[in-house]
Fold this sequence. Notes:
The complex is a heterotrimer of chains A (266), B (272) and C (265). Chain A is α/β, with parallel strands linked by helices and 266 residues long. Helix content of chain A is 40%, strand content 25%. In chain A, the strands form two sheets. Chain A has a six-stranded mixed β-sheet with strand order 6-7-8-3-9-10, with helices on both faces. A four-stranded antiparallel β-sheet of chain A has the order 2-1-4-5, covered by helices on one side. In chain A, helix 4 (107-118) packs across helix 5, helix 5 packs across helix 7 and helix 7 (155-168) runs parallel beside helix 8 (185-200). The longest helix of chain A has 16 residues, at 185-200. Chain A starts with a strand and ends with a helix. With 272 residues, chain B is mainly α. Chain B has one domain: MetI-like fold. Chain B starts with a helix and ends in a 5-residue tail after the last helix. In chain B, 40% of the residues are buried. Chain C is of the alpha/beta class and 265 residues long. Chain C has two domains: 1-81 and 171-180 and 191-252, P-loop containing nucleotide triphosphate hydrolases (Rossmann fold), CATH 3.40.50; 98-167, no CATH class. Chain C has helices at residues 49-56, 79-85, 106-117, 122-135, 152-164, 182-199, 210-216, 244-252; strands at residues 2-14, 20-33, 38-43, 64-69, 72-73, 89-92, 170-174, 202-207, 219-224, 227-232. The longest helix of chain C has 18 residues, at 182-199. The radius of gyration of chain C is 19 Å and the shape is globular. The N and C termini of chain C lie far apart (41 Å). Chains A and C meet through helix 8, helix 9, helix 10, helix 11 and helix 12 of A and helix 6, helix 7 and helix 8 of C.
Amino acid sequence: xxxxxxxxxxxxxxxxxxxxxxxxxxxxxxxxxxxxxxxxxxxxxxxxxxxxxxxxxxxxxxxxxxxxxxxxxxxxxxxxxxxxxxxxxxxxxxxxxxxxxxxxxxxxxxxxxxxxxxxxxxxxxxxxxxxxxxxxxxxxxxxxxxxxxxxxxxxxxxxxxxxxxxxxxxxxxxxxxxxxxxxxxxxxxxxxxxxxxxxxxxxxxxxxxxxxxxxxxxxxxxxxxxxxxxxxxxxxxxxxxxxxxxxxxxxxxxxxxxxxxxxxxx
Amino acid sequence: xxxxxxxxxxxxxxxxxxxxxxxxxxxxxxxxxxxxxxxxxxxxxxxxxxxxxxxxxxxxxxxxxxxxxxxxxxxxxxxxxxxxxxxxxxxxxxxxxxxxxxxxxxxxxxxxxxxxxxxxxxxxxxxxxxxxxxxxxxxxxxxxxxxxxxxxxxxxxxxxxxxxxxxxxxxxxxxxxxxxxxxxxxxxxxxxxxxxxxxxxxxxxxxxxxxxxxxxxxxxxxxxxxxxxxxxxxxxxxxxxxxxxxxxxxxxxxxxxxxxxxxxxxxxxxxx
Amino acid sequence: xxxxxxxxxxxxxxxxxxxxxxxxxxxxxxxxxxxxxxxxxxxxxxxxxxxxxxxxxxxxxxxxxxxxxxxxxxxxxxxxxxxxxxxxxxxxxxxxxxxxxxxxxxxxxxxxxxxxxxxxxxxxxxxxxxxxxxxxxxxxxxxxxxxxxxxxxxxxxxxxxxxxxxxxxxxxxxxxxxxxxxxxxxxxxxxxxxxxxxxxxxxxxxxxxxxxxxxxxxxxxxxxxxxxxxxxxxxxxxxxxxxxxxxxxxxxxxxxxxxxxxxxx
Lengths: 266, 272, 265
């Protein structure tokens, strides 16, 4: 299978400060696979995501190494080239969907604008494409949603809308940064199911989370990060059944509190 | 916070200007070479000399001495008025929004009525009713301005009231009064300090403006605004009579504004 | 004993067209919390569990219904009596940072309930605050700091110290560990279990996570749309839940290992 997103020797530090925030990060996100990055706050996982979609302020952060999408290095691209790639080929789903939407714009307007920014479609075609994308996310009463403002929808619904928008442009890579953290278990399960569907249609996913439950449900391969470095990596089975570092063991033990027998008799 | 104030060049510059003006006001009798109100018709409109460093005005009074004593009037009116306004606005601006409901609605209605009259109009009619005099102009300014200050305090209280620690304080057994005095006021005070210190500059300009119009301060008092006013008749023949008090007003107002704006930059969180 | 009878809280909101609609945040809820027992209340966001917590503390007044602590009706108390009654029931809120006054040193934050509820000397106050901070396993040095200088886990420990300072009969934890890193969360939950056993207070954990709920208590209440839909005592396994909604919540839990992955929900 073809490597889709290759990250090599990624280093991030503050400008004028030698202490690295993220150190010697190398990993691949392959199409049709889900790579999970697990880490606690301060592990550098969000910084890594932001570096990939060039969201880090160049005056504040120094980024070195290479981030290649289908062989082209995003870091050395011109502003114009990278803007064409990011958003279309690489999409990002964020933790708090509420802040990602302009509160003054209806959902429909958001969708149409996003499509028109990246394609040649007319407004009407864009609207139709958006509606069908929402339907695919198992959302009910699509017309009503298209005509409502972000704050009137629940967090779980907004997150699904966001995923629908991310999927519309048929990206090859989707980065989900703590995308289910703010949601309750029911909505989390729905979103995770969508992640699996995306993988099945050949998209490569980078799922960043602090929750080993999410990893257990969807990931194929796992990286464990601590203080800006990868401390363990392997297939999801290796990590769960045969963790090598004490830190991974502690993370796993802390995540699941109640004994297995009590929980898994359902 | 104090450390940050001394690190900011703007704040230090503003503070320096304020200190200079305060110093001048306090030590005016020692700094002024002549009595500010001493009339000497024989020596009117003289140029700068050792005896009169900036010359004399149309009545032969020492301009330099009058400017120095003027600092006493500007600060002596603006600072007490501001302190009174601060106390009133903290008393009236905190309780209604904290309690909310009908009480707050009543406050909003009353303050909207007060705000619908321009301050100048209120001051004009009050000075007309109370008569001239420094105390009267101070009363008039407080009466016309309290509502603007109280509204600002109210808006800060409204923001602070929703914070989790207010609820936590209630759970910890604090009475409403204690919550206002121990939790809300200490947390909104930095922001209010900014507002008050830029408010002083406005107050100085306002009071000079009123005395320029002949409101409140009787003729002959060495107040900067009044000096401007009496100098305007000699705009073409002796323009310096206007320039000097104008510069002093500008200097003082700049000091307070610089300091206030620097404080605001220090207090408001930086954007990354 | 804390008893809640037919408790309800309604809010009037205006919808898009300006019509008044009534939202029943808490709807006819009744339960009893015994002393020296622990309870967990599980509900999704929007189920009314935080409103219920605020009602129990009587920070908000219920629209109807009754809350009694030791047979005394909170609704019949004067403001002052109510304030003193809070010595019996305390709460730890979700956000540690925002529930601490940013301008107060940690020492003063912890000492606040002591000063309000007990009349003790400065010396005794200092001794108690220092005992509390070591009880929640923080170094004495944090007492001189301000809330923003502490990590999320440390802030949480301070709010716990504050809640246990006056040995209340009941402590309500409203999503007290969500938003913390898992390793920190585990340590704080274990600390709470230890503190509970030492003090004999009754704890009510409000959470959206059944895993946390089961870890902290064996008496479980499930809340949905303002109502308690299921209430179980002394359970030992998730199979004991009978209500459909409880089963949906359990089925939505992420698997513990990739081997338990569910194909479709």
